[in-house]
Design brief:
Layout lengths: L1 E4 L8 H10 L5 E4 L11 E3 L4 H10 L2 E4 L3 H9 L5 E2 L13 H11 L4 E2 L3 H8 L8 H4 L8
Parallel strand pairs: 1-2, 1-4, 2-3, 4-5, 5-6
Helix pairs in contact: 1-5
Length: 146
């Protein structure tokens, strides 16, 4: 199962939701779409989910896709995943600034997330038989200077 979460941000993230609908066509999917108003695709779609229910779904997922919110990234890693991260972009009206882009690039460079910036990159990063990293890597601590 592919799990996609847009977090609890009040701004829509329609770009990720549209991409999630495409991913869901080939595999079971669970999508937490938040404030987005895009039409839903195959699989199970919910606007918001409480923390424990989201964590349970993440643990069961083959791969986790999320926005570059710190809470979403930390939860995915805590659940044993190296998340595939599509940051919200200021220029596209998805965030108040590009803090998610900067964070995602830094965490990608440190080997803690897989950064994707397009639908194509997302499809490539989520394809395959297993998660994009082992649980051991997912539990590697974030250190200063990386």
């Amino acid at each position: 199962m592919i799990l996609v979460t847009t977090g609890t941000n009040e701004q829509p993230f329609d770009r990720l939701v549209r991409a999630a609908a495409q991913l869901a066509e080939g595999e079971d999917a669970f999508v937490q779409y938040g404030a987005s108003s895009e039409p839903h695709g195959p699989g199970e779609w919910v606007d918001f989910l409480d923390f424990d229910a989201l964590a349970e779904r993440m643990r069961a997922a083959r791969v986790v896709v999320c926005h570059a919110g710190v809470g979403s990234i930390m939860l995915a890693r805590r659940c044993g995943h190296r998340p595939v991260v599509m940051p919200r972009r200021f220029e596209l009206g998805e965030a108040v600034d590009d803090h998610q882009l900067h964070l995602a690039r830094r965490l990608h460079k440190a080997g803690l997330v897989t950064l994707v910036e397009s639908d194509h990159e997302l499809a490539v990063a989520t394809a395959g038989p297993g998660d994009v990293a082992s649980a051991a890597l997912a539990n590697r601590p974030i250190t200063r200077g990386r």
